[in-house]
Amino acid sequence: MKATKWIRSLLNAALAGMGAMAQAGTTPPLVLGVVPQFTATETQLRWTPIIEQLQTACGRRFQLQPSRSIPAFETGFLAGSFDLAYMNPYHAVMAQRAHGYIPLVRDNKKRLKGVLVVAADSPYRKPQDLQDQAIAFPAPNAFGASLLMRAVLEREQGVRFTPRYVKTHSNAYRQVLTGQAAAAGGVQATLQAEPDDFKAQLRVLFETAPSAPHPLVAHPRVDAATRTCITNALLQAIQSPSGQAALDGIQMTEPVTAVYARDYAPLERLSLESYVVPAPPN
After folding, report:
1. 20 to 30 A Cα–Cα from 199, which one of 16, 255, 265, 282?
2. Nearest to 199 by CA among 179, 168, 170
3. Which of 18-32, 57-71, 87-101, 144-158 is predicted least confidently?
4. What percent of the chain has pLDDT over 70?
5. pLDDT 10s digits, 26-50
6. CA-to-CA distance for 98 and 66, rounded, in angstroms?
């Protein structure tokens, strides 16, 4: 009897999966944009397990659309090109203003904190020691790593500096070790993702105040049922070892529902508009 029920369960699951795949095959894929904190290859590796789990859970195809740089990613979401996007907190403000993008989930374990790093053996001990030096940043509008960091250095620390925008967090850190910049802006999550022997050559000089971390957002054209399915799939992924591993890969170890009014609207009060650099047209 138990064997019969087990076989019936397997058949039902198989039929459900076939139905979902049939539906997925006739529906255009949902285009996913990811802010390029890492190289394109590493971004693909990190997000493929999540995409596979979402496709299984929601019966829809997902297509990762890489961006060559953070400004190119901004051009994409400001044009409304992405159905879904994983973006920094201030991008969420920009995307909501531009198209009404809706935050779905974010990590609850760690707050986003900008870090300013220098070489471990450098003489710099406080931000003011960087007066008139070159500082590397991923891109002008990378929130914790650049946008907020530049505002805090100038407004609160009184530091004048020459910014160097080098596309990714990894590139910014490496500018320090090659002597092309005295310091680099990043965030705790990307710094911790670097190899241990690499991190040992860097020292955190300064940190910004924490904020809500990167959300996964959806364009309003994504129907409510699909948005709910994506949200629930990510919230439930933590319950399996493979799901937890996939979440760890995208730095969303403890996913929770994201709410714009609570998590990202407060950033509007920081008055960072003068530090935002518009993305160049394609």
Report:
1. 255
2. 170
3. 18-32
4. 90
5. 789 999 999 998 889 999 999 999 9
6. 21
Minimal CA–CA distance to 239: which of 255, 216, 259?
255
- Whose tokens are 């992405």? That residue is 82
Instruction: Please say whether the beta carbons of 89 and 191 come within 8 A.
Output: no
pLDDT band at 25 (very low <50, low <70, confident <90, very high): low
CA angle 66, 68, 69 (to 5 degrees): 115
In this structure, what token pair is assigned to residue 258? 């994201």
pTM of the model: 0.80
177: its two tokens? 């070790």
Task: Inform me whether the pLDDT recorded for 145 exceeds 90.
Answer: yes
> In terms of pLDDT, which residue wins out, 71 or 281?
71
Q: Residue 32 and residue 217: Cα distance in Å, rounded?
A: 10
- For residue 256, is it left (φ>0), alpha (ψ between -120 and 50) or beta? beta
Q: Which residues contact 15 (CB under 8 A, 6 or more apart)?
A: none
Computed from CA positions of residues 14, 16, 19, 25, in that sequence, does the dihedral angle turn out positive or negative?
Answer: negative
